[in-house]
Amino acid sequence: MGGHRSHGRAPLFLSLITLHQALLCSAAPHHTGSPPLARDIPDVVTITSTCSEDRTRPKASHDFRFQGHPKPGGAIIYQIGDGQIQAPGPGHAFPPTHFVTTTKQPSIPTSSSSIVARDATTNSTTFVSSTQISHEATGSFSTSVSDVSLTRLTTSAVQSATLPGPTSTSGSINSVLQTSLQPSTPPFPTSIGSSDISIVNPSTLPSPSSTSVVGTLSASDIFRPIGTGAPLVPDAPKDHPCPRIGIQPQSRRLQTNKFYSALFLNEQKSPVFTFPYSVQWAKGEGQLQSWGFVVSHTEPEQWARADGQPGKDAGQWAFFGAPVGVEYIILSASELVVNSANMTPGLTTDTLEWGSVKANLFPPEWMTPVMTLPLLQGSAYITAEYHWGKPLIQSSVGFKNLTFAGALPNNLTHKYVAYLHNNHKWLIYITPLDPSYEVNRFDLDGRGSSINGPSLFNGVIQVAKVPRADGAATLNVRDIASPETDPELIYDQSAGTYPIGVNITGTVDGKTGSYTLSWTKNGTQDQDLLMFALPHHTESMSYPDQNGLTNLQLRTTTKGMATAVKGDSWTMTEKDLPIEMGFSPWTPKVGNVDKYSDPVLEAVERLGADDIREDILGQTNVSSAYYDGKALAKFAAICYALHDVVGNDTLALSGLQPLKQAFGHHLENRQRWPWVYDDSWGGVVSVASYETNNPLEDFGNPYYNDHHFHYGYFVYAAAVIGYLDPEWLANSTNTDWVNMLVRDYAGSDLDDPYFPFSRAFDWYHGHSWAAGLLDSSDGKNQESSSEDTMASYAIKMWGSVTGDQYMEARGNLMLAIQKRSFADYYLYSSDNDVQPPKFIGNKAAGILFENKIDHTTYFGANPEYIQGIHMLPLLPFSTYIRDSKFVCEEWDAYFRDPNVIGAVSGGWRGILMANYAMCNTTTAREAYGFFTSEDFDASYLDGGASKSWYTAFVAALVDGVIV
């Protein structure tokens, strides 16, 4: 079908070839080497032409391809790079100025044309046999625009609203925690039970053949693939209950926990937070009933705040967040309207990667989009690629005036300055791809609600917000190398260039690790990208990337000040990786603590003998991947403490046998809710929601909530088992099964055929997002920072035990990044200068969303819940992440009063006391006495904790010496 249509248009194509060649040859020299292969595009005619002619004027390079119009008729589609550009609709002809009929003999012969057709309904490619299939066309042309500066413009270049228009700054704020789409179950059961245990003869069992302590570590590529084998669980019984709305065919596995999932969840109306901006599909709603993309940025005085409550919050604020739905700027097109058949515009997504996505808006009945937004975190501009449409830039706040500022120095981009009725200043950059574009074609309507562009526009429109002048006092950028101090000038120098994708690489050498974010850019290629960095980026940015730091900053809601950085890549370096950290209790002063006084060893042995007699099989099979994993990790830590801390191999290996049996119960998929492989989204999930139709079963695991929490516990337990039993580790079924879990939540291979790359960990934000396929108007969120760290620690230790140095290195670097990012965004010492001063008194975030921070939990608002969820589990990494200064401040803020800590019941009491030990040696001794007391109440232990491990853990904080 595609081939037939292509043959029918051959005469038109041939005439366009001549015109296209003339345009190319009259513009700029063209590289004559081997061009890249063409990408499959519906009904594409690929034309490759080459020419050479020296020109001195500025130029922009673009890849051109012609494509059939999305509706029946004789119109044409240009394909530029990876974006589609639509020509006039049916019944419209190209204006005479679009092409000039000239003949110019190229100095190098042109290649033959090729036609590549694809049936969009089948996603298959058909090659037309009568033409030669060649490579993708690339050519260069220049657009001549006015280079008149603003100071030389006449007053006619300034347009002002003259009629009453919109001035709305209203939005919505979710000040009440939404629990309807989030699990609200406490993080642990309290029943422990007991059972008999068979004592084994350790001489008949294998002993550890390797040490759990690493002396050195080197990995030149920390993202080596873990494996590509099929998942070792059955396929899901049916399609996943969460539909994949508007997602176009993908070559890679879909992401479930990334910043852009609002584009394909629920009604597709929730914001996407790119930092510092947010983007949201208006979907025909709001004051203007627009169908475009809303671009927002809010200032702190616009945020909602709730005063702290005595007894719950130690900070002055309990909550703060930005309003959503305020239509500051709307990037739209006049074609995006409901048609006479009552058909509405549509939103699709394609090229869904770990750090980028393309969002497309389609007018009714069009087969290709009229506009495409490449969305990436840190974008300095929100960029829209227009495809032969009529741009419509709207604002419900209202435009007070619009000033045409002429051409930028690159002579490719036009600049407009817009003031809104709230006096916020926005810049609008127009980069046309049509050589005949006439300057100053954007007009402000009299009401100030919209700016209307020319018909048949193809090119790029970018918007950016200028910081307020009073924001200068908040600047706190170190080592600024950029000489520019005018934020507007900084924007000007990179306008016309924008990112469409991002890549990450990483290396580790000893205790130093680095990771590099590299962007693929479109638009003007001979100028730097401008991207916004978060505080943890600028703190660790390596030289010479620091030279790209500028004075341009915009406030984000939850991550402090974002700083604009010039450059196509950044490298961040961490110099304190915990590579020597093993399974033993660990302190920054001593490292792995492996020597204890006799009283401590006797106590750990006595308590451990009791601990391993608990009902291991019962506690690890309670119809929850989360609870089961916590229990497996708990008994793994007990076995390790008995084996390596105490040296009682008999008790340790006696406990290891039922632990392996319990682990095997899950490996064989015999738990209450078996795991299945979901081919729809690409992951291992509990079958629970398939059977109950409840998305929140098992903390939302079937909807990809909390996978790094759930599976991290399993991976840690497997690492301990593998360390203690080399024969178990040598069984490839065991290692492949555990690797499957790592691939699910922390995959390292972009092209893994079964799992996405880095599902949970966000390499831009420096921590994970727990929320999966559950929509929220405040974006992604995560509650437990400590379980996020546990998931990284598990990767590190599993890599160490299995000899995968790349996985081990990656886990170490993730821990170092989390240490930094948590100190900025999650765990607040008194000197924290990232979060609002009136909030940092709370010491811990509670729940961190992209758009708000709420000092609470989904399961309750007691201080021990809110603070404790950022403590558990207490493992060797805890003292690396939570320094003593912070621990002391947090304790003093909430639990210093004996009456307060005395009123804490259940497993939270044990969590708080084990954490308290990290304050200083005095508190460690106090905690030791608490856990070794003869009248210790076992209910003070949560489902992932034990007396023996806690005793060894707190004793290590006084160097293992207690007499």
TrEMBL record:
GO biological process: one example: cell wall organization
Catalyses which reaction(s): Hydrolysis of (1->3)-beta-D-glucosidic linkages in (1->3)-beta-D-glucans
Domain of life, per lineage: Eukaryota
Keywords linked to the UniProt accession: Carbohydrate metabolism, Cell wall biogenesis/degradation, Glycosidase, Hydrolase, Polysaccharide degradation, Signal
InterPro entries: Endo-beta-glucanase (IPR005200), GH81_C (IPR040720), GH81_N (IPR040451)
Record's signal peptide: 1-27
One Pfam family it belongs to: Glyco_hydro81C
Keyword Cell wall biogenesis/degradation: yes
EC number: 3.2.1.39
GO CC term, one of those recorded: cell surface
Coiled coil regions, renumbered to chain: none
Molecular function GO terms recorded: endo-1,3(4)-beta-glucanase activity; glucan endo-1,3-beta-D-glucosidase activity
Domain (Glycosyl hydrolase family 81 N-terminal) ranges: 240-588
Domain spans labelled Glycosyl hydrolase family 81 C-terminal: 596-950
PANTHER family listed in its UniProt record: ENDO-1,3(4)-BETA-GLUCANASE 1, GLUCAN ENDO-1,3-BETA-D-GLUCOSIDASE 2
Family from the record: Belongs to the glycosyl hydrolase 81 family.
Protein name: glucan endo-1,3-beta-D-glucosidase
